[in-house]
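pls read this stuff:
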Amino acid sequence: MIPEFCVFYGVLTFSWIEFLWEQYLTLRQRRVYKTTDKIPERLTGVLDVETFNKAKSYGIDKNSFSIAEEWFHMIISTGFICLNGFTLLWNFSKYCLIETRYYDSEIMTSCVFLLCMNTLGTLMSLPISAYSTFIIEEKHGFNKQNLNFFVKDKIKNFLLVQVISLPITAAAITIVKWGGRYFFIWLWVFAVVTSLFIMTVYPEFIAPLFDKYTPLPDGVLKTKIEELAKQVKFPLYKIYIVEGSKRSAHSNAYFYGFFNNKRIVLYDTLLKDSKDIMNNKTIIEDNAQGDKIEEKGKGMNDEEILAVLGHELGHWKLNHILFYLIISQVNLFVMLFVFGWLYDHSMLYRAFGFYESTHPVIIGLAIIFQYVFSPYNTVISFAMTTLSRQLEFQADAFAKKLGHAKPLESGLIRLHNDNLGFPVYDSLFSAWHHTHPQLLERLEAISKTD
């Protein structure tokens, strides 16, 4: 009884310690928003007072929403643990199959259990997502969705998650039951193959279900991007523009693909015009409401886009992507190894109110990965955040070596302003949360001589 007591209250105590730490950091950043009234000297002339005040207001609203959201999730999580939520949902899942021949099937019960968990999670997240989209993002000019688009998007996402997660869950349980003492090795191989498969098919077949992808038409920008790719020997296959403007005015760019089939994707909001620069306005057609949107002064010019892509290509050239992939798979192997060692211990299940003689794999995965590994995950997350910031500096330096230092500086500033990023952050908050260095840190690093 004592070990169960220690596990239960240990998990609960760490959850609240981590939560209160996050709240402390959020309040530190809130104080920065409230007390910073002057534009940093480095940004004088490139950040106007109006944009600065808008960014400040946006930051405060997101900060307030974050505090409320974290409290909501923490109360729900605590209630779920204290009310033995795993046991309640597992028994309900068995009850749903009581009149079928699958009543004694762990795989089918686990699939119903997962469906229930996903459904509850989606229902609880809907009001939060709706408030964020239609109140906060709408207030600050970023939301481009209407209610019909929002609902359809959520339904498609929910159905897609079930189509992917349920077969994977069934396969994972089968491997654990079949794999014997060293099942974790086979489970890890399955997880690696599955993740690589999803990474391959998602951009080609799944992402287009949510956004429209159009090949970048021939022109000056396309030629310059192709020349940049050749310069760094990047095996570019295609360049796409994604119509992200139908859901948000935020902008981004990325690349994907394996071997010699790599694609570059530019958000249409990143460009001054998705077809051509026209009177310094962005004109985007066929958004969710069927209207034309004109946003003066937003988007990057060709040289700034090339500089940002130079940064992204730096991640590829410096093997950052491969490095992350290796780290993630090694970490997964360690976690599955520990899971293989712990998952059949009755004490862990009893600590969460699960007193059945059998130990369902999915319950073990949920308890161990979500709660037992929580301290470990926190340490790893902070370490990866710290590492990511260093790799971002390296990618900036790579773009600088390509001769894009000035456009990269102006591009980062423009991207920051267009997304209403606040230029000042609490150092502790930033170190804990930001995978990218602050704008001022990046500008200082770029401006330094080699």
Observations:
- The radius of gyration is 24 Å.
- The CA atoms of residues 242 and 267 lie 5 Å apart.
